[in-house]
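Case 372 in the screening queue. Each case pairs one protein sequence with one candidate compound; here the compound is 2-deoxy-2-amino glucitol-6-phosphate. For every case the pipeline is the same: read the inputs, emit a complex structure as tokens, and attach any notable structural observations.

Predict complex for case 372.
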Amino acid sequence: SAAEKGGYDYFMLKEIAEQPKAVADTLLGRIDEAGRLALDEVRIPDHVLREVNKVVIVACGTAYHAGMIAKYAIEHWTRIPCETELASEFRYRDPILDQRTLVVAISQSGETMDTLMALRHAREQGAKVLAICNTNGSTIPRESDAVLYTHAGPEVAVASTKAFLTQLVACYLVALYLGQVRGTKWGDEIGSVIRELSQISTEVEKVLATMEPVRELARSLADKDTVLFLGRHVGFPVALEGALKLKELAYMHAEGFAAGELKHGPIALIEEDLPVVVVVPSPRGRSVLHDKIVSNIQEIRARGARTIVIAEEGDETVVPYADHLVRIPATPTLLQPLVATVPLQVFACELATARGNEVDQPRNLAKSVTVE
Ligand code: AGP
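Case 372 output:
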């Protein structure tokens, strides 16, 4: 009913709008006054976490994209090798796991069969499993050694939005907590990341307040067949997520690429007026990446692409090459997905609406996939 949708036309719009609160709720009570992580609820003893020598993340769909981003954060902040794998592929390749492997299973519903089978396999091999889940008491957390709940609240729309942002927050918390427990790299950078993370819900709010031009742009592209998405570093999974949202909702051909792969094939797809969304890393910090992606934008634009550039506030270098420019607030590099994904959700939702599709219940899809 309209009341359930809180005055929005679709649950998806309501859930997109709820993201600042969802993110804040997921952080609530988990950072203490001294700026340290307080995750006692994670019932894996510190001495076990100190012994972990490999992290393996398993998940499907949007949760898998959160896991891909987590890999960058975990390896950078903890120096523990981390791999992220599609849950549906995991057990079939006879993965190498033992007591020192920490498996992180990410699932909004907690009922995804592929993810459940992956975690059962991991536990059979002696690995410890930590679930990141949004649904209290669901099967995946029940069968895991420990759980860190995301507090997104119920997500009704089939396309995942607020669950994704809260999965990211939970992944950052796990990464930072592993760093804290192990005492690795616990310096200025980590302290400032935690401070920025506690402010991030305000930044998400700011993005939401500037989405009208994105909606307008989406409507103008309603008759296109294909949209490509490019990103690198943590912007690569963001590109994949933007493409997944568009497939699910707008039933359009959409693909996400690592921008560095362009010249290894995908650049052949570029043609006159093809919309290409590019997620630009911050010019601060890892600026090499920034400069590389700016040349990618130049390359595709020279070949006729219509560039839709998502770039940090104050990044002026992209301006001459952006046919459409979407501004996002400055954040630390690893946290950028929390703000960069939001315009892509809005974009896909509006395109679906413009194409007359059912936003909350896309064809052929189920909210949770309980079969393999
Ligand atoms: C997201 O928009 C999708 N509907 C889908 O990819 C989803 O993220 C995936 O099926 C995993 O679901 P889960 O988080 O409930 O395990």
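Case 372 observations:
- The first strand starts at residue 54 and ends at 59.
- The radius of gyration is 20 Å.
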